[in-house]
Write a structure and sequence with these properties.
α1 runs parallel beside α14, α4 crosses α14 and α10 packs across α13. The protein has a five-stranded parallel β-sheet with strand order 6-2-1-10-20, with helices on one face. Strands 14-13-17-18 form a four-stranded antiparallel β-sheet. Strands 3-5-4 form a three-stranded antiparallel β-sheet. The chain is α+β, with helices and mostly antiparallel strands. β8 and β9 form a beta hairpin. The longest helix has 23 residues. The protein folds into two domains: 249 residues, FAD/NAD(P)-binding domain (3-Layer(bba) Sandwich); 124 residues, no CATH class.
Amino acid sequence: MAQAVVIGAGPAGLMAAEQLAQAGHRVLVAEAKPSAARKFLMAGKSGLNLTKDEPFESLLQSYDEAADWLRPMLAEFDAQDVKNWARELGQELFTGSTGRVFPTVMKASPLLRAWMARISEAGVEIRTRWRWTGWRGEALSFDTPNGGQAIKADVTILAMGGASWARLGSDGAWADILSQKGVNSAPFAPANAGFLVDWSDHMAPHFGAPIKGVALQAGSLRTRGEAMISARGLEGGGIYTICKAVREGAELTLDLMPDLSAEDVAQRLSKTRGKASLSNHIRKSLKLGPTRTALLTEFGRPLPSEPEALAKVIKALPIRHSGLRPIDEAISTAGGVSRDAVNDGLMLTNLPGVFCAGEMLDWEAPTGGYLLTACFATGRWAGRSAADWLQTS
């Protein structure tokens, strides 16, 4: 009998396992994939953004409706704690101009190796290619390379991620298993996802181009974050920031000249046009550059010739898109185990002794370090709560 079983070897699961081991418990981590933390490693390929260095209340606001729920967990393990944790594992860090915190080496692999070594020294056993299939009576059931295995645990922590990037391990298959046990979950939806756009042929030369000097707006959300034109649509941190509002039905618009008012734009367009074509007049008057000009042509045609009307289009260019990228291509997912399905310690009320952590829970946040911070914090919280439960049960 294993005293504690953690299912899922991502950041939340490893954090939970380490907390249990530090409390003196025997811990087995079961991971469905051939190696641990595959999505964590993938995130680090373009630079591992560990957290966001900002005041706690500002950090908390990025979790939107879940902020109140996550507050005590993030207060126990906030951005400063994430930085201290990484430094304890021998990682030098730097903070970018936007407050995003990265390892100096940028990659995730050195940090993961150091962490896995420390976890192993604490006595945690990790078994890979162990896919959880539910319960067999009171025992946890697994498909393994050696056939079916059943383990009866004193406490279980589920940390299997959401439903994006299934090839890396987060396939959401656990939702049906928990539903059969009466656990309430919100439906999965893509979060931090790009938008699909059926471009006209004239946009092909701009594929891969960054969109600079613009502001994106959807509902009450407005951002000047980065965006990029891809062959399939629009990508980038700015796009991901407003993804939720668009998913919920808000119109997406692009302000091509956010530093000027509509009146200022109209005034520039009111200059004598002479024999110049409208496109040349816009080019000379506004100096939008090739990318912004291409977007104006793509989404604004037919362009009005009156300065005031054209200025309105330039300040709020409606982006026609076909919705969000498929859920498996999203960076993260909304939905998961509902707040009312767990107690304050993240234990499932329908399944005493079973805890949940990480992206399995129904919260979402933009990119920029917020996702990892909450995965670390909820994993740590679940691990400590499970250790307390073992002591008192």
